[in-house]
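Listing 4. Sequential folding, example run.
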Amino acid sequence: MSAFPPTTRRTALVTGASQGLGRVIALRLAAAGHRVIVNYFSSSAAAETTITEIRAAGGQAHAVRADVRDAGQISNLVDETHRVFGPIEVVVHNATGPQPMQRLEDYSWSDFQAQLDFFVKAPVLLSQATLAAMKQAGNGRIILIGSEVADLGNANFSAYVAAKAAMVGLARAWATELGPWQITVNLVAPGWIPVERHAGTPEASLKSYAQGLPLQRLGVPADIAGAVAFLASDEAAFITGQCLAVNGGNTF
């Protein structure tokens, strides 16, 4: 018999979960026993594949389409989740979009706004929509997927870097504000984890990045999913306001 109590099974919402990191995070949370809402925007077939895989393994999952930058669609997403699984107890803010790299002189403000919409507006709107239930329950988990770029300050990437850095501020401020309700807020900051969007990246680029890491190997999506699952678990109940770098030691 295990010396540790089983992890509480919660209703978890993962945004942008039809593919990439989000998909693997959804699979990992389901494997831990959580009821998972797989949010997607355009990849309905991929979302269905994800929930089919979860169900085949004995888990519970439901796919809901919503643009998490839109308040009305978030309201529908939350309502649908309540109908299927009940109140949302874990929110993983993972959704992302195009990430242009270019010189500062070539950016327009709309390029910055697009990144802020994904990484500030969406978490704000979705957290606001789920907080009442978390506060009433006196428990909750908000997990932001950030990036090591907030520490590295990558050149020609300032719109993305700025928005990801803003997520750090959200995590720390919300952790302080929401702590009295036992709602923890943490950020997981991946390094470069190759997923579908990186298809076609030259092997030399992947190898060069990996060789620069203390562990001298690339991470995989499961590395990020494991960190998220831990922060969603009972074992992480006394951890809040933290930025956990999961990048093979690329930042400290």
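-- end of first protein; second protein begins --
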Amino acid sequence: MLPRIGVLALQGDVEEHLATLAQLPCVPAAVKKDADIRSCDGLIIPGGESTTIGKLIQRFELEPAIAGLHEAGRPIFGTCAGVILLANEIVGSDQYRLGWLNAEVERNAYGRQVDSFETDLPVQGVEGGPVRAVFIRAPIIRAAREGCEVLASFDGLPVLVRQGNLLGATFHPELVGETRIHRLLLSLCPGAWG
């Protein structure tokens, strides 16, 4: 049975994640209701505006459903704004966050939209050469603390981390047709590839 992977469809680049997942052995689903989230085998919190996504999680009371996935060991992948929401520390901000990832992040640390860039990143545990990564008003992971493993770095700082069933990326693999980070997410689904 293929895993059902939800993309939190409150704001941000939902369609791009769904299109990437459609290339993989899973059932992609845009989710924005409690019951829809709870029925997922994994969840992606996409890039967008972290404060907006956070406010909508609160407004629609979705944290218990997302927490239920986390507590059940189902994988959660945060990209860009998503990794900000997963982190337990945000530099200079008291904004809402889920706070499960033992990392310190800084919002918009690479600059404005015009400072966006692409690069190729070697990723630990991912075969087939470097992963193409797109950084758009991206956060920086200033510190990956105990239990938070660095899978890829750029300019000496973590850009892809894993902590148990959590994945966090400061970049967007889904914008350039890169599927290998999403495959990594699928590999974390309990029993998905047994």
